[in-house]
Write a sequence for this structure.
């Protein structure tokens, strides 16, 4: 399985800049996710790799093959890139049976009839659809169609697999099962895969690495943990999960630690490899579930980074409680597994749970 | 299953990038654009020469335009055409919109059947229907004299401009109906529901929401109908010419056939002027269609309840529409049938005393038999050829990345706006100027076929395009991604999904080519007659019997083919003539 190199893609739609300087590299056998809101350029990037969009600038190479190079005016037609794609709508051809859908790529490759039959059945078994060869797509459920689409993308052993929001048409329960199943299949086959989604849960749970995109630019590339725990900017912090953003000025900086003075004069100590100059403005991101919240009258919390706050509202969300807290001018969102049955609480912001985003 | 079985499969065999797809796309574009726009070049050329193109010598001059514009007869004809077109447009748009609203927005009894029947005049042979009108409503016609004798009431004289307009309006009413019906079906009914819940009565909703929403459709239909009635040749020729009422179309036709110098440049000049007017109207229409997008609300819901309850008006209105359909379509067809079985048409003698088979027996002989054979052959060959070429062109227009693809939809819809006589004259000059292939086309029936195909090809496109637009683009992208080239993807994925539209297109083309006549009037020569030209020719000689039986052949085959299409192929041939 080859690597994928995407270098400095630029794509313009009229006045709209759809991609500006998009670069990344996908390692062999890796599941790499492009995550972002709609219109961020993730699908344009994927379709550029597939050959259905032509960027104005940049270079795309898979393994040793250059698919696209704007400076040398190279663009291999989509049908000769040998990629497997699962489309958002699945695009299972409605006038062909499941068997015919899978046989078509092999017929195009002029394979022998017997070989085609054997290979199609092999791949149908792989996606656990062995009994459905004679069915037409309209006789299948959404989940089954998705498996057929995946099987069709695998049947000719493509060099890499591209998944364009493949789970967005499934209902919530089925989606979770399908995720686990696709991930398992992908790692078993060792397929280099690019996966496009707008769903952060999907991205975090399936990916080896994630590229978060926004308005045509790659904001951050990293493992799911890095993206979640150490977002590199406000957008990433806000898009991947809920977050508290705290802005202030640097009051002191020592090795590995920075003290941030909030507008109301309170100081927060933060673990950070940050060469902060005093009085510079900084913004911190803290996840709601990282905050520790206890009733004010029975709190064991004290010392630094602990704030007294009032509960503004509380919401029960099944597996956790979500609190809106106010401490002077500071508004915080916190999550706890158990209810805190008072209006006055103590909040502790752990120094190692803060990420500097600006 | 392990990863080894997955890796075992051989990779895609690398093939050379054959230039076929691009070449095929360009070839399609060149052929379609060349055939549609090509004939206008010699037409334009012929109009600025001082003598017919087949005569040696000659020089450039604008004298043909000067002569034409200096001829008072031309101006009289232009005035008549304008009155005729305006009146036709007014009648058919108002009536068509009213029927459309009644059918889609009220609880009119039998509205679905009425909706279908309203389309009939569009599909039935127009020349035959006009003949039917003459038999039934003409001076000395069956119904007009019956009403005069027994009720002592005058009927509308169909040999006047208003009379002809009424006939033309019944022929073109389906165009207005279809445009409005489509707009109403598209319109989001929640807009109307919102007005009702805001306290408006149904009538108020109709006046303040439904009809204003229909405005772009009305303008669009009106422009198209105006264009079509300017270009109309059959009704003016059959009804106006005998009473010396000239129209631009008949003026040009008679100049062509009767003038001292045949094929004079004046006719070409007139055709160019007519072409210019039609083109301007088409451009206006395209602007209107663009404006219509503003009014398009998301897809309407199926099975909505009727907005407006007609109450006491239900049955009277249903009866009115039924009477209209009866007297405008069914009675003329019956009159035509009757005419084909009598020795001569007169209300004074009971038809069974005049019964004869001879009009039908004549069809087995000479020019009549030849015309029927030619028409059947042309309809069959033209239906297949046009469907194939238009399918390919539609694929190029909507499913390729050919740089010039966006010009194709406009070019393919263009012939709809061009008068048939212009296409006829254009092809006449084109064949004359293209040497051996042109003269081969001119000698045989295939030249007529080409003109018919070009003339009617917009119908094939408007049938195919909506179906093509519904085939999701990811389906062909999936084809490309698994390794199939453009043509392979079209052949294996898009065309099979397009099959119902291909059948519908064939059926529609068959019917339209079978019943078409006006481009052929300029191309026909002894030995290459088709049904339409023979009917017109025979009628102008004063013989009506065999004309009626020929028309009945057209009606019969048309109805049969449409029924076959509807029931066997499950096609709904409504044509989408509004596009």
């Amino acid at each position: 399985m080859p690597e994928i190199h995407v270098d400095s893609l630029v794509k313009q739609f009229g006045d709209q800049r759809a991609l500006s300087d998009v670069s990344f590299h996908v390692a062999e056998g890796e599941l790499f996710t492009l995550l972002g809101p709609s219109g961020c350029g993730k699908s344009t990037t994927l379709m550029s790799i597939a050959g259905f969009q032509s960027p104005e600038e940049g270079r795309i190479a898979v393994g040793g093959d250059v698919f696209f190079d704007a400076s040398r005016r190279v663009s291999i037609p989509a049908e000769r890139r040998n990629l497997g794609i699962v489309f958002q709508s699945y695009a299972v051809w409605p006038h062909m049976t499941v068997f015919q859908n899978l046989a078509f790529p092999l017929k195009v490759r002029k394979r022998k009839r017997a070989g085609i039959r054997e290979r199609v059945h092999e791949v149908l078994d792989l996606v656990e659809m062995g009994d459905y060869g004679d069915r037409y797509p309209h006789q299948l459920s959404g989940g089954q169609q998705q498996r057929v689409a995946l099987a069709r993308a695998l049947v000719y052993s493509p060099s890499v697999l591209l998944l364009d929001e493949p789970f967005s048409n499934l209902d919530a329960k089925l989606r979770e099962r399908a995720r686990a199943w696709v991930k398992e299949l992908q790692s078993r086959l060792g397929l280099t895969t690019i996966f496009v989604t707008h769903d952060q849960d999907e991205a975090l749970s399936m990916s080896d690495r994630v590229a978060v995109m926004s308005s045509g630019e790659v904001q951050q590339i990293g493992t799911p943990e890095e993206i979640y725990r150490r977002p590199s900017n406000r957008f990433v912090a806000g898009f991947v999960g809920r977050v508290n953003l705290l802005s202030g000025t640097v009051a002191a900086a020592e090795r590995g630690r920075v003290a941030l003075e909030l507008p109301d004069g309170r100081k927060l100590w933060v673990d950070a490899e940050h060469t902060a100059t005093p009085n510079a403005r900084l913004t911190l991101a803290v996840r709601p579930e990282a905050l520790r919240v206890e009733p004010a009258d029975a709190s064991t919390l004290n010392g630094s980074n602990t704030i007294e706050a009032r509960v503004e509202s509380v919401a029960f969300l099944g597996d956790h409680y979500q609190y809106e807290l106010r401490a002077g001018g500071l508004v915080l969102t916190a999550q706890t597994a158990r209810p805190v049955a008072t209006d006055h609480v103590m909040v502790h912001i752990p120094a190692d749970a803060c990420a500097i985003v600006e | 299953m392990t990863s080894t079985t997955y890796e075992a499969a051989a990779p895609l065999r690398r093939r050379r990038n054959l230039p076929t797809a691009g070449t095929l796309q360009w070839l399609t574009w060149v052929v379609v654009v060349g055939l549609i726009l090509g004939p206008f070049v010699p037409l334009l050329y012929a109009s600025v020469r001082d003598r017919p193109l087949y005569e040696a010598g000659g020089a450039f001059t604008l004298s043909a335009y000067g002569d034409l514009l200096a001829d008072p007869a031309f101006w009289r004809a232009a005035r008549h055409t304008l009155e005729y077109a305006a009146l036709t447009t007014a009648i058919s748009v108002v009536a068509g919109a009213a029927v459309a609203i009644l059918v889609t927005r009220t609880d009119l009894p039998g509205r679905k059947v009425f909706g279908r029947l309203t389309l009939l005049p569009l599909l039935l042979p127009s020349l035959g229907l006009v003949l039917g009108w003459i038999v039934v409503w003409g001076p000395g016609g069956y119904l007009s004299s019956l009403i005069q004798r027994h009720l002592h009431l005058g009927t509308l004289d169909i040999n006047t401009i208003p009379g002809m307009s009424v006939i033309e309006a019944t022929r073109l009413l389906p165009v207005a109906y279809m445009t409005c019906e489509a707009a109403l079906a598209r319109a989001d009914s929640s807009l109307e529901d919102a007005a009702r819940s805001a306290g408006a009565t149904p009538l108020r909703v109709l006046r303040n929401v439904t009809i204003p929403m229909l405005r772009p459709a009305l303008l669009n239909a009106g422009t198209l109908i105006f264009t079509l009635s300017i270009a109309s040749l059959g009704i003016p020729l059959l009804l106006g010419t005998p009473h010396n009422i000239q129209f631009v179309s008949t003026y040009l036709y008679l100049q062509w056939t009767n003038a001292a110098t045949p094929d004079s440049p004046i006719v070409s000049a007139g055709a160019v002027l007519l072409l210019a007017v039609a083109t301007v109207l088409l451009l206006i229409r395209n602007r209107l269609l663009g404006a219509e997008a503003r009014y398009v609300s998301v897809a309407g819901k199926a099975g909505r309840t009727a907005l407006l309850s007609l109450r006491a008006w239900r049955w009277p209105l249903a009866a009115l529409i039924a009477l209209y359909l009866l007297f405008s379509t069914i009675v003329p067809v019956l009159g035509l049938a009757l005419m084909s079985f009598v020795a001569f048409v007169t209300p004074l003698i009971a038809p069974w005393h005049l019964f004869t088979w001879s009009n039908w027996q004549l069809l087995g002989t000479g020019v009549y038999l030849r015309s029927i054979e030619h028409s059947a052959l042309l309809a069959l060959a033209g239906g297949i050829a046009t469907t194939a070429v238009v399918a390919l062109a539609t694929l190029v227009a909507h499913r390729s990345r050919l740089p010039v693809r966006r010009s194709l939809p406009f070019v393919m819809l263009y012939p709809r706006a061009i008068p048939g006589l212009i296409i006829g004259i254009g092809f006449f000059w084109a064949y004359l100027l293209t040497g051996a292939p042109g003269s081969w086309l001119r000698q045989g029936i295939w030249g007529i076929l080409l003109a018919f195909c070009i003339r009617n090809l917009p119908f094939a496109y408007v049938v195919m395009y909506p179906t093509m637009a519904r085939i999701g683009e990811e389906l062909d992208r999936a084809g490309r991604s698994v390794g199939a080239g453009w043509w392979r993807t079209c052949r294996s994925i898009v065309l099979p999904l397009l099959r119902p539209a291909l059948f519908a297109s064939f059926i529609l083309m068959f019917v339209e080519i079978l019943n078409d006549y006006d481009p052929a009037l300029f191309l026909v020569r002894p030995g290459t007659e088709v049904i339409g030209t023979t009917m017109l020719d025979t009628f102008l000689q004063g013989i009506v019997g065999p004309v009626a039986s020929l028309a009945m052949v057209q009606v019969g085959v048309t109805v049969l083919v449409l029924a076959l299409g509807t029931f066997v192929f499950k096609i709904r041939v409504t044509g989408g003539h509004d596009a």
User: Anything to note?
Assistant: The mean pLDDT of chain B is 82. Chain B has two domains: 60-305+313-345, 356-579.
